[in-house]
Here is the input.
Amino acid sequence: MIPRRKRRHKFSVRKFYRINQYIQAKEVRVVDETGKQIGVMPIFEATQRAKKEGKDLVEVSPKAQPPVAKIIDFKKFKYLESKKEREEKKGRKPGELKEVQFTPFIAQNDFNTRLKKVKEFLQEGSKVKIRIRFKGRQITKREFGYKLIERILIELDQLAKKEAEPRFQGREIYLIVSPQRSKPEGEKDEKKDEN
Here is the structure.
């Protein structure tokens, strides 16, 4: 009998918000759509105020004392939250540390492919950890690893700057490079005009 593979389910974690009559606190700190504080009031009064405005009372910070609730249309609130999450994800990308691995005796085509990847990461605004991994007896030829790092740095001359000198650790040499800030075009033009 063949053992059945266990299925792995991917669950997306969604935030749960209590609204209107489902808020369990006796009193809440109420804020309006813009985040302006209205004040602390009993839950009944807060829900009545939201109904009067034709909106919902959404508990945004349940652990605060007293919990914070916002008077806003719930659909609009969910839309704004998802928009904020998307922007946070976008904002996280630049500055992330990416990693590209080389070997000391890498073929030219492989070198070009990996170097292209490094350049892409740098153009996205990410830092890149360049690892040169030694296998077996290659460890006796460390100088080839350092030569390869020099070659990479020459290729990345205009795009990146090294954060520190290359380090040897375990069976690899690694170096972290960060994107080089290009000067605004106006500055270059001014220097040309001076000459």
